[in-house]
Structure formats: C-alpha cells, structure tokens
Amino acid sequence: MKCYYHHENDAVAICKSCSRALCEPCAADVHPGTACVNRCEEDVEELNIVIDKSKASYQKAGKAYRYNAIAMLILGLIFVTSGIVLTIITGKYGAGFPVALGLVFLLWSYFSYRSAQQIEATNENT
C-alpha cells in the first residue's frame, strides 16, 4: 500500500481519523493511534477521549444493571409475598395480580443480573 500523500512511498500506518495510508513523514503518533501530520492530530486526540469515556460508561452500566437487578428482586419478593399473604388471609384467590406482577419483577431481576454479568465479562476481556 502506498502513502496517500506521497504515492512513491510505502505506507507504514493508517490514520485513525480519515483512514488514509501514511508514510513515515506523514504519520504522527497520537497514542494510541496514528494521525495525518498537521491534519488529523486533533481529531484523533478527540477520538481517543471519546473511546476512553465510552469504556468508563460501559463499566458503569454493569453496576447499574446489578443495582437494577437487586431492586427488581426486592420488588418481586414483596409483590409475591403480599399476594400469597393476601390469599391466605382472605381465603380467596383474587390476589393473583400481585403474584403475577411479582413474577414479572423477578424475571426482570434475572435478566438484569445476566446483563450485568455479560457486561462485566466483556470488561474483563478488554
């Protein structure tokens, strides 16, 4: 592959911003990444900041899913328990709605917990 700006030179890198092939004199090291000298350096620095922020927010998302799972578990247990207690006290089976709602919360809790585990596994792999 040849340099975008110097067609006679072999490329040694690709610009992280514009994806152009660059030879040694045209490549600027903007860790992590390479940019076109005096053209894309600022863009690559901004891209690096965005990538770092997205990694941090992805880690926070895992914690949020875990807290959501705990809250939904508590709500699910409250609704299931209250439905069962209502059925026992009244002797009628009209308390099916709280039990059904509690089961929905318990399922929600399970899927939130699974999502938290997946996000944490992804964070460990990167």
Write a structural description.
This protein is mainly alpha-helical and 126 residues long. The chain folds into two domains: 1-39, no CATH class; 54-125. It is built from two helices and four strands. It has helices at 41-90, 96-125, and strands at residues 13-14, 21-22, 27-29, 34-36. The strands form two sheets. A two-stranded antiparallel sheet has the order 1-2. The protein has a two-stranded antiparallel ribbon with strand order 3-4. Strand 1 and strand 2 form a beta hairpin. Helix 1 (41-90) runs antiparallel to helix 2. The longest helix is centred in the middle third of the chain and has 50 residues, at 41-90. The radius of gyration is 27 Å and the shape is rod-shaped. The two termini are 30 Å apart. The model has no long low-confidence stretch (mean pLDDT 90).
Q: Can you describe this structure in just a few lines?
A:
The chain is mainly alpha-helical and 126 residues long. The protein has 2 helices and 4 strands.
